[in-house]
Design goal:
The chain is mainly α and 225 residues long. It has one domain. The protein is 71% helix and 0% strand. The chain is built from twelve helices and no strands. It has helices at 2-22, 42-51, 54-59, 64-77, 80-89, 97-114, 117-131, 139-145, 149-173, 177-181, 183-200, 204-214. Helix 1 (2-22) crosses helix 2 (42-51), helix 1 (2-22) crosses helix 11 (183-200) and helix 4 (64-77) packs antiparallel against helix 6 (97-114).
Length: 225
Amino acid sequence: MKTSIIVTVCALALSASLAVAQGPGPGGQRQRGQGAGMGMGQGPLLAIGLLQRPDVQKELNLTDEQKQTLAQKLRGLRQQPGQRGERRERGDQRRGGGDQRADQQRIAGAIKEVLNDKQFERFQQLVLQRAGPSAIAGPDVAKQLSLTEKQQTEIRDIQRASGEKARAAMQEARGDREAMRGIREKMQASREAAGKQILGLLTAEQQKKWKSLLGKPFKFETGRA
């Protein structure tokens, strides 16, 4: 279950929630879909980037040897989304969600090979904290929280509406430098509002479980990805 949570976050939570704060994806392309469909390739990259942050490495108490080993492994893992893109360019349309999840399993497995159990558990907590309540939509997190079908549907609706607002704001601000200055703040506010709505759908017991998954609050340094 521990590894499955990190896979869910790689695929869903980080890409979905941070897309609101970061805007369009690589190359200026719009993040596609809603919730679980957003940024399937970028999610792992964001998780990898999080592990490379000095403040996160310090929180995990990584040794110099671990940092060096991770750097080697993560350089190779960063190439995987591009390899998937090359396969698509060759016309291979058969690659599905199962294959994507397999890639995410490999990423989680590679990270787990370097971190000890305590470090990996804390890393999962930090990833969930960085992702925010959007991570609750992931199937593994939803299972741990025992979400009902109705709750999951309502969460997806909230994420869809938030994503639509973010895209609309981006479209309106395009070409307007003055408007673009405040777009990040507006998107962050939209993300926070959606997060509050999602948390509001949880029962007291589910909220308690969610807090336990997050672990001790961590303040991420500003100015980093």
